[in-house]
Design goal:
Helix content is about 35%, strand content about 20%. It has helices at about 10-35, 35-40, 45-65, 85-100, 105-115, 135-140, 230-235, 250-255, 280-290, 320-335; strands at about 70-75, 125-130, 145-150, 155-165, 175-185, 190-195, 200-205, 215-220, 245, 265, 290-295, 315-320. Bound molecules: adenosine monophosphate (AMP) and magnesium ion. Magnesium ion binds near residues 129, 132 and 279.
Length: about 350
């Protein structure tokens, strides 16, 4: 039986990573709660930017203090924040950190953020998306804080903070939202409530649904991030009856990991787009350790040894063991009708000349 967690090979890394993701998730939740209809209507993106910086600062501070030699490949860097004209903005970041119990000068906060601006591959590194799913964050919907430790190109520790996802998916739960999903390689996948650090972690398992007609698939809300026309062709090919579950962020991996959906498809919507490692690393190991499979659209394993992008892969398919190969086979057939030239998969609607 897999150990619950904090013992084992990655105990020190997991302990600090859980603290870091919990702190960052709370910061994001506080900022999201302040987004008013007014801010939303004005399409003011500043809340997400404040939360992005504060989340990255909080996480990189904790990881950097315990593992000062570990590079962190994160999404943000502090360049803009250090400019004089952005002083008031930096103040907002400092104020969110203060509210989370972290007192810092502007210089310190920027230095923490820049602990996470590495972009090159290393034999041991962390990768971080301080807020994945920024559109969901602004819409008061799903977003995630994603953190993973990669050793020799393999994800060994992975965490997803999901402040708007219930820790328990059963309808009879008390409705409390906020969960941290996490996994260590060989140690299983687990979920803990965001607001109760002392709660016993609960194991997370993919569903064993093998009948595609009964299966549920999830995909991005944003049609620029995935081809919904191709996914609906896959759904038709597999006779899937249920409508897609559209959700922002790596919360989709959490949903597959705990069996609320069987399949997550991310099918390239434009030529040449390279997935970013921080958009996946946290979710991939959670699904794998929950008993699922994750690959690119051609069934190849994801390669986390090329720096900040998945240069060797195109798109993503995450699914339970029973259905993963069927999705890849369906995609293979469908892509044959899109005879791609060498290089990236074509966009929907592309016709051979
Ligand atoms: P999601 O919430 O699943 O739609 O994914 C959000 C992530 O999509 C962001 O963090 C971006 O890094 C990433 N993204 C941006 N443009 C694209 C694109 N053209 N294709 C795939 N992902 C993208
Ligand atoms: Mg992201």
């Amino acid at each position: 039986m897999a150990s619950q967690s904090k013992s084992g090979r990655w105990a020190a890394e997991l302990t600090v990573a859980l603290d870091a993701v919990r702190a960052a998730s709370h910061i994001c939740r506080e900022v999201q709660a302040k987004i008013s209809a007014d801010v939303f209507e004005k399409e003011d993106r500043s809340p997400v930017t404040v939360a992005d910086f504060a989340s990255q600062a909080a996480i990189c501070r904790l990881i950097g203090d315990v593992f000062p030699r570990d590079p962190i490949i994160g999404e943000e860097e502090s360049g803009a924040l250090r400019r004089d004209e952005n002083g008031p903005f930096l103040e907002r970041v400092l104020s969110e950190l203060r509210a989370a119990g972290v007192n810092a000068t502007g210089e310190q906060a920027c230095d923490w953020i820049d602990r996470g601006c590495e972009k090159k591959y290393a034999p041991r590194f962390w990768t971080l998306d301080p807020i994945d799913g920024t559109k969901g964050f602004l819409r008061q919907e799903q977003y995630a804080v994603s953190l993973a430790l990669v050793i020799d190109g393999r994800i060994e520790v992975a965490l997803l903070g999901c402040p708007n996802l219930a820790a328990v998916s059963q309808p009879d739960s008390d409705g409390a939202t906020g969960a941290i999903f996490y996994a260590t390689r060989g140690g299983g996948a687990w979920v803990v409530p965001l607001d109760d650090p002392s709660a016993a972690p609960q194991p997370v398992h993919c569903s064993h649904q093998s009948n595609a007609a009964e299966a549920r698939f999830c995909e991005s809300v944003e049609s620029s991030h995935t081809s919904t026309s191709l996914s609906s062709r896959v759904a038709d090919a597999l006779c899937m009856q249920r409508p897609p579950l559209r959700m922002d962020s790596q919360a989709k991996y959490a949903i597959v990991a705990r069996g609320d959906a069987e399949i997550y498809m991310r099918l390239p919507a434009k030529y040449g787009y390279k997935e970013k490692i921080w958009d996946h690393a946290g979710g991939v190991l959670v699904v794998e350790e929950a008993g699922g499979c994750v690959s690119d659209v051609e069934g190849r394993p994801l390669e986390f040894n090329h720096g900040f992008e998945l240069l060797g892969n195109r798109g993503i398919v995450a699914a339970n063991r029973e259905l993963h190969a069927k999705v890849i086979a369906a995609l293979d057939e469908i892509y044959k009708t899109f005879p791609a030239p060498q290089g990236p998969l074509p966009a929907p609607g592309w016709k051979p000349s």
